[in-house]
Amino acid sequence: MEVNSRCCQEKRQPPWPLLAQPHAWQSLWRKTTQFLGFSPVKARNVRVMKLYLIRHGETVDNVAQLYAGVRDSPLTVQGVLQAERLGRYLRTSEKPFTHIFASDLQRAAKTAESLLSAQPKHNEAAHLTFQRLPILREQDFGFYEGKPFYARQRDSKKPGKDTHRSQHQDEPGFQDVESKESMIARTNAFVAEHIQPLVLGNHSKQKPIVAIVSHGIILSHLWRSILGMFSKNTVSLAAGLSVGSGGVTPLDHLGGWSNTGYLELEITYAVVDTVVQWKATEAVAGASPKSSVEADGSYPLGLPSTFKMLIKTVNGKEHLRGLKRARGVGSSQYDEGQKKIESFFKKTKVTEGE
């Protein structure tokens, strides 16, 4: 009986004892693929990019309700305070910016300068500068630059500006507003030249954190250009964030920008390369094996594996809490020669409980 039992046990043993050992199949697979000319490629880590689309601070023409597209309207005292508040807020809530882009018009450039001056001076941000780009200018309002807003007329279905155009378009020197197509071309060009290379670049040491300071209308088109980089169902809203009616948020129309309001975006991309890569091409005229990763570690255009975007904040204004306008002074043009701007609003005596 004992002999028969041992025979049965011997029969139940696997024909290849090696395969019963831990990781035996992995070892066999590795040796087989090496023999056949395959090489495993490791998955790459998930990396993150942050984007802030920011509108400039309040301007003199904003207060006067004048059309200011390419017209270089300066910031008001209130606008400078808004920009300084934003710079300090983002400094404490976010890591230092790696890139700052701004329209070359002074209202956007001055706002960007406030972001830059608030950056810490003891690290890479100490060498940070911002690029002033005409391509980020506001829509050109043509004939209407510097003119007051025209209200919709009660006896017309057209907006007041359209009615005004029909009345003045034959006048000498009339220039129409910049077209939607022109603005789309500008924002698409900016994204292709400045944003896509950052998204697809190799950022093993530091993730890009980018601020773009521009103007209300062009920012809306810029947002749609950025949105156009992503596949369907890869863009989502942060938990609890809804800006549409009935709980439905149209992503291409998130709403407007307040002065120094910002849109905060987080882009994640996980690159998982092919599990195995055929090496036989090495034998063909000395060719190198093809890979989804370039020699310098960057990702070729058209070959990203996964891109997703999370909308974290829409028209963020947390930095403006408690900021009040001083009568008269707040709406006036900011004079760089005056004393520290916040001194206008400091009380000479602060009592307990205030």
Class by alpha and beta content:
alpha/beta
Instruction: Please give the order of strands in the largest beta sheet.
Output: 4-3-5-2-7-9-6
User: What is the terminal-to-terminal distance?
Assistant: 97 Å
Determine the oligomeric state from the structure.
single chain
Q: Give Rg in angstroms.
A: 30 Å
In terms of per-residue confidence, which ranges show pLDDT below 50 for 5 or more consecutive residues?
A: 273-303, 339-354
Anisotropy-based shape = globular
Secondary-structure element pattern, one letter each:
HHEEHHEHEHHEHEEEE
| Tally of individual helices | 8
How many strands in all?
A: 9
Percentage of residues in helical conformation: 25-40%
Major beta sheet summary: 7 strands, mixed
**Approximately how much beta-strand content do the residues carry?**
5-15%
Mean pLDDT: 75
What does this structure look like?
- The chain is an alpha/beta fold and 354 residues long.
- Helix content is 29%, strand content 15%.
- A seven-stranded mixed beta sheet has the order 4-3-5-2-7-9-6, sandwiched between helices.
- The longest helix has 21 residues, at 180-200.
- The chain is globular, with a radius of gyration of 30 Å.
- The termini are far apart.
- Mean pLDDT is 75; it is low at 273-303 and 339-354.
